[in-house]
Amino acid sequence: MLIIFKVKQAIDKFIFTLNEAGLNVALFRAKRKLLKIITGKVITPLDEEIKEIINLEKPDHLEIKTSSEPLVSIIIPVYNNSLYTFNCLLSLANNISQDVSFEIIVVDDNSQDNTPAVLKLVSGINVLRNGRNSGFITSCNRGAEAARGKYLYFLNNDTKILPNCVESLIATIEKEERIAAVGSKLIYANGKLQEAGGIIWRDASGWNYGRNDSPAEPEYNYLRPVDYCSGASLLVRKDIFDGYGGFSKEFIPAYYEDTDLCFGLRNLGYQVLYQPLSAVIHYEGVTSGTSLTEGVKQYQVVNHDKFASKWRDNLSQHLTNDPAKSLQMAARRLQGEKKILVIDSYVPLYDRESGCVRLMAILKIFLELGYSVIFLPDNGYPEEPYTSTLQQMGIEVLYCTPAQPDLKAQLVKRLHLIHGVWLCRPELCDKYMELIRFYSKVPIIYDTIDLHFLRLKRQQQYLDATYQNTDWSWETYQKLELNFARQADATVVVTEVEQKTLQDEGIDNVWIIPNIHYRLKRNLPVFEQRSGLLFIGSYNHIPNIDAVKWLCLEIMPLVWQSHPEINVTLLGSNLKEEVRSLGSDKVKVTGYVEDVEPYFLSHRLFVAPLRFGAGMKGKIGHSLSYGLPTITTNIGAEGMGLKERYDVLIADSEKTFASAIIELYFHQQLWETLSQNSLETISKYGPEKVRERLKSLWRSVNTDLAS
Length: 707
What we know:
The longest helix is centred in the first third of the chain and has 20 residues, at 2-21. By secondary structure, this protein is of the alpha/beta class. Helix 1 (2-21) runs antiparallel to helix 2, helix 16 packs parallel to helix 18 (474-487) and helix 23 crosses helix 26 (668-682). The chain contains 27 helices and 27 strands.
C-alpha cells in the first residue's frame, strides 16, 4: 500500500509539472493508465480508504474526547450488534477533527446482547438506555431531547465515517440559515455506492440514486438539493428539528421518518442538501435486515401508505416512477428547471488565468439567476482544487472515469436536460457544435473569449510564425470564428472593438460580456507605503511572455539608467524558462502565488506593456480593482474605455513607457488621482451590470431562460 501511495505521489507531481509546462494532454487518462500498468488495476483514493476501514476491530477500551459545550450532538440509536456500534464509535474517534466540539449520545434501545458491556469500554460518551425496545424513531427523539449542540447528527450504528464526514456537513449547513439539513454519501462495504441523495417518485416510492454504481462518478459528486437524505447520516439544525416536533411518531417504529422530516423542512421554506464530501460506509441491513415481510423492515411497506397519504399534494409535483426515462431529471428536480451546459477547455483556473476569472464570475451569475449548471472541461481532467470549488457551488462537473471514459457520451446522455449551451473558443465549437445540434435544438451561445484571429494577426507584427502555439493560422481562425459566429444563436465578445469587427462581417447578434471585477472596498496602503513595479499573467499566453521580455530587456534598462532602485516583480502561472531567465537582483520572478493580494497592496505601480493581443485584459481590470495605478499600451487599454492621465497612463514605445514609469513612480498627486479614478472606472464592470446583460442575452435566444 505504501509503495502504491508513493507511486501515486510521483505521478501527481509529474502531472503538476506537465500542467505548469502548459502541455495540453489527457492528464487524467494518463494517470489512470500509469496506475493500472504499475499496480495491475485502477486504484482511487476512495478505494484505498474503504479497504482500510471496512474491517471490524474487536471492542476494546476507547477514549473519545468530547466537549461539554458541543457544536454538534452525534446521536446513535442502537439495538444489539455491539461489534458494529464499537466500530462506529471508533471511526468517530479517529476521523473527527479536534477543531470540532461534539458530544456523542448513544441511545441503547434495550439491547439483548453485550452492547451495555461494550459501551462501558468507551469513555466520553453519554449512554441512554430505553426500558423497553421502542424503535428507531423513539430512540432518535430521546437523543435529540438530551442534546446540547446547535446541530444534531443522526448516525446509524452500522456505519463508519470517513475523514471530513462531519466537518463537511457542518461547513455546509453554516453557509446560510435556510439550509436545515445536510446528508452524506452512503457507500457499501464493497466500495459500491448505496445512495447519493434519495429520490421520491409520485407514488411515494423511493429510489437510492446511484445504487451499486461507483461513488467516483461525476453525477454523484456535487452539492445539490434533494428530495431527502437518509437518516443513517443526517445533520439537522436542532432548533428547527425541535420546532418540527422531531421525527414524526406516526411512522413509529421506523421508515419514512427521515423522508417525512425532509419534506416537512422543505415545506417550511428550508433546504435539504446532499453533500458528497461527507462519506459514510454503511453496512446496510445489519440493524433491520432486508426482508420486507418480517421484523422492523416490514414497516417500510406500511409507512409508505401513510407517507403517500400525508404528502399527496406535494407528491403530485414529483415525476412518475420510471427510472429508465426519468432518473436523471428526478435527481436534479430541485436544482431548478433551467439548465445550462458550459463547455471550456478545462475547469476554470480562477487564480491562474484572467479568462478563467471571467468565466468563474459568469458561472456565479448563472447560479444567482436561478439556473443550474453542468460544466464540461474538454480535457476531461478534474483538476483540484478547481473542480471541487465548482462542485461545492452546486455545479455538476463532467470528467473521465474508468467507467465513463468518453466525455462526448456523458454529454449526449445529458443533452435532453439542457435548455441552453454556453460554448467557449473556436476549437471547441469545431468539436462540439455539430454534435449538440444533432441531438438537441437548444440555443447555443458562442463565447469567443477573445477573437483569436485578431490576436494572432497582431502577433505576427512582432513574432514570426515559428513562435505560434497553435497549428492554425490567423486566416484559419478567422474563417472558423466567423463561421461559428454565424451558426450560433448569439456570439459573445468582451470589447466593442471585437463587436464591431464581427458586425463589419455581417454578424449581427453579437453581445459584449466583459471581464467581471469586484471593487475592493476598504482602506488601501498609501503612496509612501509602496515600492516596485508589478506584472501578472499566465505564461501560457504568448502576449504575456512578449510583454515581460520587452519590459525587462528594453524598457527597464532605460529606467535603471537614472533609477536603479526600482525593482520589478513578475507573478503568474505556467512559468516558462524564457521568463525565469529574466530574473536578477532587480527582477524577481515569483511565478504562481496562491494569494496575490499582498502584491497588489504593496507595489507602487502595475505595468502591462502588451504589444499585441485581443479582448479585455483581465490583469488590468485586476489592478484597477485594487486602485493600483497602471501603465499600459493602447492594446492593453483596449475595450475598457480607459482615459489617458485619468485612470491610466498609456505608452506604446520603449522610451515613452520608461518615461511614464519614472513620472508616475515619483509623482504622488498623479498617482493618487489615477488610484481613485481606477476604483470608479472598475465599478462599470461589476457583476450587477453584467447580470442584467446576461439576462437580456438569454432573452434574445430563449425566453425560457430569460425570466
